[in-house]
Design goal:
alpha+beta; Translation Initiation Factor IF3; four-stranded mixed sheet; 3 helices; 36% strand
Length: 104
């Protein structure tokens, strides 16, 4: 139960982050666009099998919403060591894609 509280605390501290999960793709596109209306930069974060969806979200915003003037400002990749339910430790890949408004 404490890990759930840590996640909600982390989410509320950084309002410019969108965490990718198992919801439909356009849910995250909409959430990112709403955040971009209020923030100059939004970071799309994902782990493991959600990484391709994070890339899709960023590309939909940049390529299909090109009239709104957004760009990918940075991409960070990495890995986290996660303890699985069977007690083994695993490396899980992570990605952070920062999308921001064009200044031109």
């Amino acid at each position: 139960m404490s890990s759930h509280n840590e996640k909600t605390d982390r989410k509320s501290k950084f309002s410019n982050e969108v965490f990718i999960g198992k919801k439909p793709l356009m849910t995250y596109v909409t959430a990112t666009l709403v955040q971009l209306a209020n923030e100059p930069t939004v970071v799309i974060k994902a782990r493991g099998r959600s990484i391709p969806m994070a890339v899709d979200v960023s590309q939909i915003i940049v390529k299909r919403m090109n009239t709104l003037g957004y760009k990918v400002s940075s991409v960070k990749i990495g890995s986290e060591v996660v303890k699985s339910q069977d007690g083994n430790t695993r490396n899980v890949s992570t990605i952070e894609v920062a999308v921001s408004r064009n200044n031109s």
